[in-house]
Amino acid sequence: MASGFFALLDDISALVKASAASLDDVPAQVAKTTGKVSGIVIDDTAVTPKYVVGLDPSREISIIYRIAKKSLINKLLILSPAALLLGYFAPWAITPILMLGGAYLCFEGYEKVHSMFSKRKYVHVENEQLKVITPEELEKERVTGAVRTDIILSAEIMAIAYSQVTDQGIVNQIVVMLSVAVFITLAVYGFVGLIVKMDDIGVHLAQEKYHPSAQKFGRGIVKFMPHFLNILGYVGTAAMLWVGAEIIAHGIPFTSHLLHDLENALDENPAVAWFAKALACAVAGLIAGFVVENMVALLKKVLPRKS
After folding, report:
1. Structural domain tally of the chain?
2. I need a surface site. Which of 79, 118, 196, 222 has the fewest CB within 10 A?
3. What's the pLDDT score for residue 16?
4. Model confidence at 125, in pLDDT bands (50, 70, 90)?
5. pLDDT on residue 3
6. Domain ranges, residue 160
7. 150 closest CA partner among 112, 200, 192
């Protein structure tokens, strides 16, 4: 009886040691996964600031907090469990879901590029009644729109995170995915909060009570931030196209081999290899986005409209 008890303790001890050794790899796995989703993270960071533009500056941090909280809840309570369940019961579905998300990113990226170069037409409609909403209603609309966009990007992040740990034990999978969810949410919305408050920081430093060099630096921040936000928007669009196309390419054996061949051909210069791959994916993303847009337009024509 005693020997059986001690044998059980030995088994538990061995299991604990194995789990601890496995969990030691978690930081490296989180770092690897975060690198894989960097393009989506950049896009998420670039998209979010537009949802607080034009609102009461005193409400900016509160709005970002609300978006971040809902984003984290979605990742922890909906998207991570969904990825784990799909991976267990229907692992074949992970790649098609990733590819659908990639197609959506290409579509969004193409729409942004198209809007940059297309001439907008403004039609004047007389006697049109404009909808008047309160600041509270506008804030609610902005938060809802931001959360809707975020959940799509977050779904991609968590699906990619799961694809990186499919060969790990269930405990490692759960710990890595939850760690990625928390880390990325804090990083993205912490940086977004800093971006939207930089104008206020610049205005504060530009006050006469500070040293002239600090005042000059503050005025420089205020002048630079609009340009920075524009650049961030372009980077986010490029990241959408690049990441979306790469996700689709990795789901198709032929195009996946093409990307690997491209990297191998330029492996003597990693920077050139990375740029060539990113450029190829961005161009492919534009083409994919164009195809998806036309498919959506065709479906709108074919499907009957609700009266």
Report:
1. 1
2. 118
3. 40
4. very low
5. 52
6. 25-302
7. 192
Helix (H, G, I), strand (E, B) or coil at 266: coil
Residue 207 is given by DSSP the state: S
294 domain residue, yes or no: yes
CB 286 within 8 A of CB 113: yes
Token pair for 112:
């942004």
Predicted confidence (pLDDT) at residue 300 exceeds the cutoff of 90: no
Residue 307 is assigned to a structural domain of this protein: no
Burial bucket for residue 155 (CB in 10 Å: 0-12, 13-18, 19+): buried
Quick one: which of 58, 59, 258 has its CA closest to 140?
Answer: 59
Does residue 52 lie in a domain region? yes
Q: How far is CA 237 from CA 42, 102, 291, 304, in A?
A: 9, 13, 17, 32
Q: E strands along 43-189, which residues?
A: none
15 found inside a domain? no
Calpha distance 262→128 (Å, rounded): 55
Look up the pTM and report it.
0.73
User: Which residue, chain included where needed, has tokens 């006050």?
Assistant: 207
CB atoms within 10 A of CB 288: 23
